[in-house]
Write a structure and sequence with these properties.
This protein has three helices and four strands, in the order E-E-H-H-E-E-H. It is an alpha+beta fold and 86 residues long. The strands form two sheets. It has a two-stranded antiparallel sheet. A two-stranded antiparallel sheet has the order 3-4. Helix 1 crosses helix 2. It is flat, with a radius of gyration of 15 Å.
Length: 86
């Protein structure tokens, strides 16, 4: 899961504002994965997934009724706990 509500973004007409939805969460996931992969020299999807899981916070999303991974990317993309463990 990634933040997708009230994301400050560009708007038509050379403006900025808050937007919400999967269109906002998707770039956060892509950027997060790119940064993690690049910093660690990872190109294999399986290895990237393992590394991403180290940086996420488990079991934080409420109402997860589907059988999907319940990990949340920290909003700022940085965790001091992870830095201490790596």
């Amino acid at each position: 899961y990634a933040p997708g509500s009230d994301i400050y973004s560009t708007l038509p007409g050379n403006r900025y504002g808050l937007l919400s939805g999967t269109s906002m969460a998707s770039p956060i996931i892509c950027g997060f994965a790119s940064a993690i992969g690049s910093a660690n020299g990872i190109i294999n999807p399986g290895e990237l997934w393992e590394e991403i899981q180290k940086w996420t916070i488990s079991n934080k999303v409420q109402g997860n009724k589907k059988k999907i991974v319940n990990n949340l990317i920290p909003f700022d993309g940085y965790s001091t706990e992870n830095e201490e463990n790596n």
